[in-house]
Write a structure and sequence with these properties.
The chain is of the alpha/beta class and about 325 residues long. About 45% of the residues lie in helices and about 10% in strands.
């Protein structure tokens, strides 16, 4: 894609030599360079950012991705763009760790909370929503999130699979509910099984639906994938890698912070129209907090279950990143 004009402001000139006269204040210490300012607190194989190529930031939940994205956007005149499949939903701000209203007021953000909670949202639609935000004459795109499939589709291309009819989706729902994940897996071709996360019900169901609706396995569709919208060579891809124990502590602390920030009130607001089948109901902690509000779980039990589910999700994310993002630059927080 065409380069955009470089954004970083120039550093103020430094004194060349000599000390200031006694009646003048000492010169200010040298300011951080643009690269030093965004790299604060990170180590690893970190690239230079010149403000001309979009920046991609992936990493497991609670790893500090959003804070890094905001530092980069602030330093290089960018816009923070969501690449998290649950942060698109309007009805769960706190529980999905969407940026706060103060963050959104401070810096431009896009593709957060723009989808009703009852509406399905696909990676294909995300790519279509993202396309106009990649224009070279706009703010520098800083695309951040934990949904590996979004980044893979963006940088490697997305197969143009026809929509799945509702009847097929309903059949998959019934099969999953009545016979479990193994029943779906048993009907998926070996090539597709080798490519999907077989422990992720959403990915397994999607593969089953595609095969049932089109007569072709998901792997066949992927092999016919068109060119990507943003190949890795045209952007700056950064993957945050974390120590497991460090991340688990942050996950526990973050859920406590969510409760303090109003996650339970958010669950109360969603309870009236709650259904476990809603697309937005996949928000981690949503089912647990609803169960607490309905008297089926204590708050402490809901907290514990949500924290465990988040740790499990982070483990799946790390596995995806290791297998699919080998060419990304690695950064380690902490």
């Amino acid at each position: 894609m065409p380069d955009r004009a470089s954004k970083p402001p120039a550093n103020p000139p430094l004194r060349q030599s000599g000390a200031p006269p006694e009646d003048q204040p000492a010169a200010n210490p040298p300011q951080e360079t643009p690269q030093e300012s965004w790299r604060a607190g990170l180590t690893g194989d970190l690239p230079d950012i010149d403000g001309t190529r979009p920046v991609l930031i992936a990493g497991p939940t609670a790893s500090g991705k959003s804070a890094l994205a905001m530092r980069i956007a602030a330093r290089f005149g960018g816009r923070v763009i969501n690449a998290d499949a649950l942060q698109v939903y309007a009805n769960w701000r706190v529980l999905t760790a969407r940026p706060s209203t103060a963050d959104e007021a401070r810096l431009p953000h896009a593709l957060y909370g723009h989808v009703p909670g009852e509406q399905a949202y696909s990676v294909g639609r995300w790519l279509r929503d993202l396309a106009p935000l990649l224009a070279p004459d706009g703010p520098l795109p800083v695309i951040v999130g934990g949904t590996g499939l979004y980044f893979t589709a963006l940088t490697e291309g997305l197969a143009e699979i026809p929509p799945v009819p509702p009847a097929v989706r309903q059949a998959a729902d019934r099969l999953l509910a009545e016979r479990g994940l193994a029943a779906l897996l048993a009907e998926i071709d070996p090539d597709t099984l080798a490519r999907i996360d077989q422990r992720n019900p959403a990915r397994v169901q999607r593969a089953w639906e595609v095969a049932r609706a089109t007569g072709r396995g998901l792997a066949q569709w992927q092999d016919a994938t068109p060119a990507p919208a943003l190949p890795l060579s045209a952007c700056v891809p950064i993957l945050l890698e974390t120590d497991k124990d460090w991340l688990n502590r942050r996950i526990a602390a973050r859920f406590d912070a969510m409760l303090e920030a109003g996650a339970l009130d958010e669950a109360r607001a969603n309870r009236k129209d709650w259904s476990a089948g809603l697309p937005s109901a996949k928000a981690i902690g949503a089912a647990e907090l609803i169960a607490h509000l309905e008297g089926r779980l204590s708050l402490e039990a809901a907290r514990e279950r949500a924290t465990i589910a988040t740790r499990q999700y982070a483990k799946r994310q790390r596995q995806w990143f290791r297998s699919r993002m080998r060419r990304w630059h690695r950064g380690r927080p902490g």
